């Protein structure tokens, strides 16, 4: 077959029991089973995935996504219908599944990889790569019962990434909480797409539309829509918004005063947005002094943060407002043509925007050796879509086209945005003026 996965008319019914005793009795005495209340978690779901394709599954809580993934992986039997998968399936579905909590991380690598059918010799050959990808340091030789959930995810993902799977099944909810690692996972998945198929469940429809070729929208156990990832995620978002907003159309004349748009950067919808649940709060995590960097080493960044116009350090930045990105650095030796810049990337590593100090002084600044400097880059933070982001910092000397990096930090600051009105595109940039006139 050309298909990597065929899900045909799959239904799943769960028996619901209020009391554990009744559940036990119904398991032991089949006649009681008929009396239990039945819940249809999946109803006649069909989908096909060709080898090399990526399928995203979206849907609200309780829509049946995890149930479908478990059926695809064979850890749950369907009540009706069938699933055919070609090749080796590796899954990240349930934290700790397949792990022995008394074993160390290293021992669990062998245990898990054996479950996926790898021989000891095959695991010997890739154990170092698995450990390097997981990046959990000395914890690899400690029992996994002492692991944080983030460490579990790191190790579990690293294992499934190295078992030569033909189909990867991933519930992205598990990767939440660690923006840096989920970026790395997304990069890995992008690469994996070249050789295998992926089934990917995510609440982040942006991630689904970027990563996946096709998508399936489940609603109360049924297929609402199946098709191209873009088409399905857009329809799903529209549905979510119409559910939360109703069909109310905001009357622009009533709520937006054109005169408010006097300052170039001011978004006249600001007040409207700030008072809504789409308020674009962007939470900033503190600068991690242990984060790795590369460059000549003549400059070390010792701190970085966001400040508002009153010079207050911010833990939350509001999308659509002016902020200052502060970079504190130690400079070892005198440098000319000095440039400070930044990039903001989404969790797949895609650059959204960035800038540097060259626009202010094309010939660059000069700095003295053995000194500490504070650079501040003031910019308009765009409205960001829900998700996690990182800021990369670069300190260099030279020109835009030709420069030497003294200190480049990939993930200097991490930030996370939980609420947003941005549903199309990667980010929103404020509309600073609008006029409408009739032409005769
Ligand atoms: N073992 C079970 N017994 C009874 N009901 C179950 C069982 N497992 C799942 N369900 C029910 O089936 C429905 C679908 O659950 P499922 O976990 O597949 O949803 P989901 O789309 O993955 O949700 P979420 O996004 O919240 O993870 C839910 O209403 C859930 O309560």
UniProtKB/TrEMBL annotation:
Annotated protein name in UniProt: ABC transporter ATP-binding protein
InterPro entries named in the record: AAA+_ATPase, ABC_transporter-like_ATP-bd, ABC_transporter-like_CS, ABC_transpr_TagH-like, Bact_Polysacc_Export_ATP-bd, P-loop_NTPase, Wzt_C
Protein family membership: Belongs to the ABC transporter superfamily.
Keywords tagged on the record: ATP-binding, Nucleotide-binding, Transport
Keyword Cell division part of the UniProt annotation: no
Residues in ABC transporter domain copies: 26-245
Superkingdom field: Bacteria
Keyword Repressor: no
Species in which this protein is naturally found: Gilvimarinus japonicus
Listed GO MF terms: ATP binding
């Amino acid at each position: 077959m050309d298909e990597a996965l065929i899900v045909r008319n799959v239904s799943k019914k769960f028996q619901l029991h209020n009391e554990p005793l009744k559940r036990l009795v119904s398991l032991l005495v089949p006649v009681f089973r008929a009396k239990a209340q039945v819940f249809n978690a999946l109803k006649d779901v069909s989908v096909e995935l060709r080898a090399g394709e990526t399928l995203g599954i979206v849907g609200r809580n309780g829509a049946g996504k995890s149930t479908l993934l478990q059926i695809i992986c064979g850890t749950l039997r369907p009540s009706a219908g069938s699933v055919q998968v070609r090749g080796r399936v590796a899954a990240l579905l349930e934290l700790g599944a397949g792990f022995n909590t008394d074993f160390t991380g290293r021992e669990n690598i062998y245990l898990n990889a054996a479950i996926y059918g790898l021989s000891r010799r095959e695991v010997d050959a890739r154990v170092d790569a698995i450990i390097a990808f997981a990046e959990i340091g000395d914890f690899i030789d400690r029992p996994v019962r002492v692991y944080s959930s983030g460490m579990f995810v790191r190790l579990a993902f690293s294992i499934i990434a190295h078992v030569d799977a033909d189909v990867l099944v991933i519930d992205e909810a598990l990767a939440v909480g660690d923006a840096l690692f989920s970026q790395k996972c997304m990069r890995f998945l992008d690469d994996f797409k070249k050789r295998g198929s992926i089934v990917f469940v995510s609440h982040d429809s942006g991630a689904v539309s970027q990563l996946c070729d096709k998508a399936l929208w489940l609603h109360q156990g049924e297929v609402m829509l199946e098709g191209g990832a873009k088409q399905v995620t857009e329809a799903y978002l529209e549905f979510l918004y119409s559910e939360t907003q109703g069909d109310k159309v905001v009357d622009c004349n009533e709520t937006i005063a054109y005169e408010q748009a006097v300052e170039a950067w001011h978004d006249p919808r600001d007040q409207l947005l700030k008072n809504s649940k789409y308020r674009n709060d962007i939470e900033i995590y503190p600068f991690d002094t242990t984060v790795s960097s590369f460059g000549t080493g003549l400059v070390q960044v010792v701190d970085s943060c966001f400040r508002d116009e009153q010079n207050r350090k911010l833990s939350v930045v509001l999308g659509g407002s002016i902020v200052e990105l502060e970079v504190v650095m130690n400079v070892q030796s005198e440098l000319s043509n000095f440039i400070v810049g930044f990039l903001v990337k989404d969790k797949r590593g895609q650059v959204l925007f960035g800038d540097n100090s060259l626009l202010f002084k094309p010939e660059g600044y000069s700095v003295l050796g053995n000194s500490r400097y504070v650079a501040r880059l003031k910019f308009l933070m765009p409205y960001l879509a829900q998700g996690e982001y990182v800021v990369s910092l670069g300190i260099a000397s030279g020109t835009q086209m030709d420069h030497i990096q003294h200190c480049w930090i990939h993930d200097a600051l991490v930030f996370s945005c939980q609420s947003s009105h941005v549903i199309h595109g990667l980010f929103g940039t404020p509309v600073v003026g609008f006029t409408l006139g009739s032409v005769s």
